[in-house]
Amino acid sequence: MIILAVESSCDETSVAVVKDGKEVLSNIVLSQIDIHKIYGGVVPEIASRNHIAHITRVFEQALIDSKISVDDIDLVAVTRGPGLIGSLLVGINAASAFAFAHHKPLIGVNHLVGHLYAAGIEHEIKLPALALLVSGGHTELLYIKDHMDIKMIGTTLDDAVGEAYDKVARTLGLSYPGGPIVDQLAEQGMDAYHLPRPYLNDTFNFSFSGLKSAVINVVHNAKQRGEKININDMCASFQNSVLDVLISKTKHAAEIFDVKQIIIAGGVAANRGLRKRIFEEIKDIEIIIPSMKYCTDNAAMIGAAAFYQYQKEGPHPNYLLGGESTITFEKLSE
To answer: Is 261 exposed, middle or buried (0-12, 13-18, 19+ CB in 10 A)?
Structure first.
């Protein structure tokens, strides 16, 4: 099955062509990072306007690079949420118009499910599995019983981990996006500030707002005393706190739910510190992580997820408007 997939949930305009959920024939990603960098974060209105300006060209390039014709496409898939509403609508309208014009079935894919199946492009997903989904907007532990049968074990009670990285970077005077910069500087520092490990031993939920505030307070108090913050050490201290929490909860959940595999997914899965430590500290169960190019938002992951979703559910005429699905991120019953 050949799927043309569209992703526009935030500030990447992406169109991909994916065969049978694994073979990526093309994956065009047009990033807006340089545009939003001067604002210190994504500006929704600017993001949606740039999607409008470039999505047709991205469609064309994805088809050219895939070396297929429109007739070869069996299904059109598009991110239906969560995300920025204006950005999502651009992708949904473009995908809907393409599907209508060429008489192709159309389905909507949950953006978070796309991140999970990004790991399946280069690896075999073995079920049941546990997924740690970490991104700028989400921090969740998910139990994947079967394809498209996903339940939430734990979630963030406030800031997502990626959001905390960006806010800490801003506090330290670093550029946007802050996550990769903090990760890089952390390698050159040491855990000298001994920051708290929030919610370390309390359920599978996460909370990073207090950790962010702890960094802000340390920086503010140092300035009041005329002291200089060691940026590398602060980055290392913050990252060590985050990773201690993420890895500890993931390891504990994997033991309780007796899964065959751990999946690390989402934009923060590109964090080199996380990728290194997770393999060092969890050795008794297989761990799979997408390549760097599939960690951040891209349409190939939507095409991969759409393959399994279509096999299980088929097309839903009203799916983009909220049709029923077996996919749920409701809390798993205790």
So the answer is: buried
